[in-house]
Protein 1
Amino acid sequence: MSSSSGQAMLKLDAVEAWYGSIQALKGITLEVNEGEIISLIGSNGAGKTTTMKTIHGLMKPKAGRIEYLGRDTAKISTQELVQMGMAQSPEGRRVFPKMTVLENLEMGAFQREDQSEVASDIEDIYEMFPRLRERKEQKAGLMSGGEQQMLAMGRALMARPRLLLLDEPSMGLAPLVIQQIFDIIVEINRKGTTVLLVEQNANVALAISHRAYVLETGTVVLEGTGKELLASDAVRKAYLGE
Amino acid sequence: MSAAQKQVVIDRTGQLFGCFVLLSLFIVAAKDPATFVGQTTIGITNGALLALIALGYTMVYGIIELINFAHADVFMMGSMLGMQLIVSMGVSAQSGVFAKGAIIVVGLVICMVACALINVAIEKIAYKPLRNAPPLAPLITAIGMSFILANLAQKIWGPSQVSVPDLIGNGSIAGVRIKDIVVIMVTAPLLVGLTWFVTNTRQGKAMRATAQDQGAAAIMGIDVNRTISLTFLLGGLLAGASGVLYALVNTTTVWNAGFKNGLFAFTAAVLGGIGNLRGAVIGALLIGLIQAYSAAYVGDRWTDVVIFSILVMVLVFRPTGLLGEQEITRA
Ligand SMILES: Nc1ncnc2c1ncn2[C@@H]1O[C@H](COP(=O)(O)OP(=O)(O)OP(=O)(O)O)[C@@H](O)[C@H]1O
Ligand SMILES: [Mg+2]
């Protein structure tokens, strides 16, 4: 919308996904345009994480179609998607516990061709999260939850993503740090990265999103601009606790 | 007493016991230094051969949490293929030094590659399809693969001991057997090379990342399947080297050579802390030395008892192994 160029970067069309005999996604249709911040909100078990995994090729959809940069992703592996600029900070952080902060950041750049620029990008991440610089030689598994969250995000940024998938980046963080993380998301987006954001913290997420989708038991039940959804009664009742 | 305090007491007791053993060794060494040095080099050689096998167990466990029972039989295959190659090429104890040296080098390379391929094939055929099955399924398949390889070897090379031409001989330099020198000369660079590979190369980093969190590794764009194959490949290379050296040092091998050596190597991996590469090497050297000292000072019959008692004690008192770190996972 506002800052989009109109070109859909990512398109999901009636995507269904199953865990064994449990259907987690029952036909998700959504679109992310270049330059946008898009939020997925919804209660626990709605299928937000499953949507992220399916987009990233970590799960194969049983039905429906996903298009990234104009290509059907059915036959594209996660490695290739990463090479095509898709990076993720997964739910639960998932930092490499026995590697140092620095090594974790290096892992984020694993698929990059330009390894010579990795060192300067790590500097940029340290500028963004000074705490990571102080802790750079520490094993990631020994960091606090908030520090690990910063690391997971820094690690995803090390891929120099075109599309950044963030699954609950504010989980377990103090309010002050949440604000900081969201400022950084806006900043990253302004520099040209498209962001797909999953958040429980609907208030803050909607405030920075161009558009958003509300998921419920595996389907999209509502969509609109961040402002529209913030103002919608249904959303206020269900997700903002009012 | 808290659990941590208890662990400290147990560790101190263990260290005290270790000191006692060292002291006894010191006394017997002072009495008869020549025997002691001889046993020590034999112990290091045994340990080096076990280390090469133990690394395969520990790397595979580290990456897919599977005890690859077939690994011992890959080692056995290495010893059989090495023997076959030497015999087929017509090289014997009477051949010239150059021919013997060449067949050792070429045999090592060929058998290492062959064992690597066998190990990779085992993973592809027997374990990969069970990646998402309950852990008992691949474990049973691993035991099955072990039987298949052992029986295959029995079919090809017969049920009794097969003798291997004694290419190295029983000479010694400055009191150290040439056999021990050859083993060390082959093993040391392999261990250094492996360590370097795992710590410094891109693929090595992919291995470590996959071992720590497979899902997160995939998200980084790491090809998890290829990384697992690579792990089996490296384990197979080392097992192949160990097999050939084993055949050369003992001048004999047999279809079930993998059984006891595999068990000792696995014990070494557990002793050092399974999943820990450095631990596997240290564990293997310890077991090799215990084997040699107990054969000389306690009696050969007791070797197995001593080694497996140590395994049981480690499992009971220090389940993470000697070098096993406290789990650092904060969910
Ligand atoms: N590995 C799994 N095996 C079986 N079922 C699963 C698995 N992961 C998720 N599910 C189920 O799929 C549904 C969607 O889960 P998902 O993790 O996508 O929800 P979510 O919207 O991310 O929830 P949350 O806000 O709690 O993170 C849930 O009903 C969940 O129980
Ligand atoms: Mg989730």
Protein 2
Amino acid sequence: MSLPELSLHGLERPDSLGSVCERLAERAARGEKTVLLAGGTDWFVERHVAPATDGSEAELVLDVSRLPELRGISASGDTLWIGAATTYLELRRHPVVAARVPLLPAMSKDVGAVQIQARGTLGGNLATASPAADGVGALAALDATVHLLSVRGPRSIAISDYFTGYKRSVRAADEVITGFTVQMPGEGSFQYWRKVGTRLAQAISKVALAGVAEVSDGQVTRLGLGMVSVAPTTAFLPTVRALALRRPLDRIADSALDAATQADVSPIDDVRSTGDYRRHVSGALVREFFRTLRSR
Amino acid sequence: MSNVGTSVPRTDGPSKVVGTAKYVDDLSMPGMLHGATLRSPVARGILKRIVKDPAFDWTGITFVDATDVPVNVVALIQDDQPVLASHEIRHRYEPLALIACDDALRLARAARHVTFEIEPLPAIFDPRASFERREIVAPPDNVFGRYRITKGDAEAALASCEVVVSGTYSVHHQEQLYIEPQGVIAWFDERGAHVHGSIQCPYYVQKGVKKTFVLTESDVDVVQTVTGGGFGGKEEYPTVISLHALLLAKKSRRPVKMIYDRQEDIEATTKRHPAEIGIVTGCDRDGTLRAISIHVLMDGGAYVTLTPVVLSRGILHAAGAYRWEHVLAEAVAVATNTPPNGAFRGFGAPQTIWAVERHLDKVARQLGMDPLVLKSNNVLRVGDTTATSQTLKESVGIGECIEKARTASDWDRKRALGPVVQGRKARGIGACVFMHGAGFTGSGERRLKGRVALDLLLGGRVRIRTASTDIGQGTETVFSQIAADALGLPMSQVEFLQPSTARVPDSGPTVASRTVMVVGSIVEAAARELKERIDAEQAATGLDRRRAMDALVFRAMGTAEHVYDTPRDLEWDDATYRGDAYPVYGWGCDIAEVEVDLDTFETKVLGFWAAADVGKAIHPTHCKGQIEGGTLQAIGWALHEQIVWKDGAILNGRMTNYIVPTSLDAPPFTTLLVEAPYSRGPGGGAKGIGELPMDGGAPAIAAAIEHATGISMDNLPCLPEDLFERARKGRAA
Ligand SMILES: Cc1cc2nc3c(=O)[nH]c(=O)nc-3n(C[C@H](O)[C@H](O)[C@H](O)COP(=O)(O)OP(=O)(O)OC[C@H]3O[C@@H](n4cnc5c(N)ncnc54)[C@H](O)[C@@H]3O)c2cc1C
């Protein structure tokens, strides 16, 4: 988006979450388009590709990046709350996250580069509902709960129920994502993050895998997987999960893992990679996840 | 006092670091309009009609089409490319019309209200199909250039060689991706036409403006503004955007600024020429190389632009840095319906060097020899003759380059060890040996007669006037070093005039690794002449140095203008392509160590050793910068970069999806400077360094990948997807 095009958009900075919800409700009722501005790192790119050409097409921008209700990370017992406007850099620097959910800082370090990490947020990552969203891959592996709020009230849904299709979700036009809760993996849990991108920084994932596992007596007792860029939405790999959960680790064969992975992914050719390569890498990452888990 | 050989602070550094340097988009003119280009949505067709939406309010919008162009050609080698297409369209993104407006937002809106009625024609994207004339897309025969080099009798020799190896190799497009996109501001006033912009070669633009607007030299002033990189991409292309801006300026009678955004720049401007190269070689069983036969087919894109010259440089480097008794090299460039390919660092040589280096790796494999030993045993030395039968008389530092790179990288041990596989990762090491002609090819410099002027200014200062531009590579600093030393003055008393065709003599284009070696030597000669005048003045008058300099200025004796003293003993025959192709060569040996992930086929470059014979490093830090930067550009070409085409359109015209390496992807570099001085080089023997580092990276990387994995890549790029496909095919076979 060019600077003159930016000037077509109105900008408001509501001072409370309540007024954001009210503004959203009013405008949604009138069929008017509104965008919530968190880091702006997705929205600016989107508008660059498809700029508004006159004021009537331009959506109103509501800046939510400074709302205290959407910010911050806190732990209560084993439950971790992450506000929707939390940035990747905040995730990288939080001591509890680093100790208990190292998957999140590992993922955050691979997002864009430090400038994007300082602005981009987990809420924005989910709201775009792109299958290439790295943060969502991690949230999927953590089986996070998504919290939404509107004038009609709050609701909480499992992240696996959030998506309805490519860049589509159950979130209504008047709803704000307020944050996420995550059951923090226990001591000695295994957490895995590997991103295969187009290069080492400033790269969108060709394939990435986030994984969480707990093992007790050689048996997988908790298993979460989230795979990026291999399906119309973030892939939860249900067949792989079903194959391995509550199974003795040493009885999970690579060939079975491969078959399960291939059943769970449906990657395509695009400018970044090929469907064939993505299929191959999907299998390799799942195998690596279990190989590493076994060798611990 | 010696500045040459020392890494002095760069003279243009402070203004760039603090942000006061003015790039063209930082400039503004009173009453200035913004201009935009409306481009073809098809790859080939006949333009029937341009339709301006009658419902749109066109007031205040200047509109230009082919009917507004006085002489509708972009003057370069051939006059085949129109400034704006009037009838035939030969590539997607071809300029069809121009608009300008003082309000950038209305401009963008207006652009969406122009449509083109086009009768599509079948397009050709495969150079082979073009060569076979399956469609004539550039009359009469699709051919943009042909060259042939012969030495001895290659065919007969091949028939009797002990070991004959053949192979076919190919390389792909590459985008220059200079950090500052193309841009100019242009206007007319009572003195004529003015262009200020991001330009590598101001005199090329002047030539184009003269032709299109039927003007004389004194009517056209082209000024280079601070330029953020070029890599060849701002050699010929700025003529096009300058002509467009001037057309809008002429019609609107206002200054017009045109700045491409990244996507437009990637889509519409020139790229490196793709090529397919077939090689057959013959050698003895002990690895003594005897004969080589090479066939090059280059993809020129839609118009001739600089293709014949790129093809020429390509074929001149095609036999590599080796001794062959028998050479047959034939090259053809053909038209396709993609935007014209053009100048890019290396200028045809990286393409053919890729092929010959991959080929020799294959020969070594067949002979069971260490490839670096094979290459080193056959490399050219002083007294040997090249493919064009040029006898090398001096400044051949390749032996030292190979030794240095080999030792520093611990080649012998690592190569003998074979691939080191740890878990799912395999390490390997590969090498490339190469040379690059410095300066113009053949009789180019003699024809050009580059000129430079140095002026004494009051107060003991000296000013350099040349058309050689500093586009980030350090021309300004290096010329100042050379002039200061030749004059015996501190660098702080030397200044560099912003290149402008009205104020600087034509020292030739800033291309072909000629700036330091050729133009630098003219600067040095002019500076020496001034010094002699000052010395004589002092001797005659007894004045101190400063007063003697002022006295010369007062007597109008303060300017020394010099013409390049072309080495007289060079002989070149354009008809047979035989003789001294270049006055001298830069030499290099690159060694890459990589680690390939056997699951994902990602290649990580663990180390890169680049040894380069530069003759004399006038500014060692700049030299190393050129070597590291050029090598990284070559690594990008091999491992990351790829234009994704669909029906002549580019699908990845943005920095997010045209992937170049970031600093994290850059390997640790060990740069080894070798100085085998060139007797006619400035500063004690400098040769060109601009292009050389682009030549060795890709073959060295591919060789290392092969050593690590056994996957032998004959075609660029070596993206993970390509390695994966090769491995899969290998398994299937
Ligand atoms: C150079 C670059 C590199 C990048 N690299 C990566 C990468 O490596 N991995 C990756 O996954 N992504 C990457 N991205 C994409 C982007 O940075 C991330 O998706 C980021 O998390 C988006 O967050 P944001 O706060 O900037 O979103 P914004 O742009 O502010 O918002 C995006 C969308 O989300 C909506 N939204 C924001 N907050 C809320 C909320 N609380 N409730 C409801 N809707 C909301 C907005 O209305 C908007 O539609 C990159 C982007 C750029 C420009």
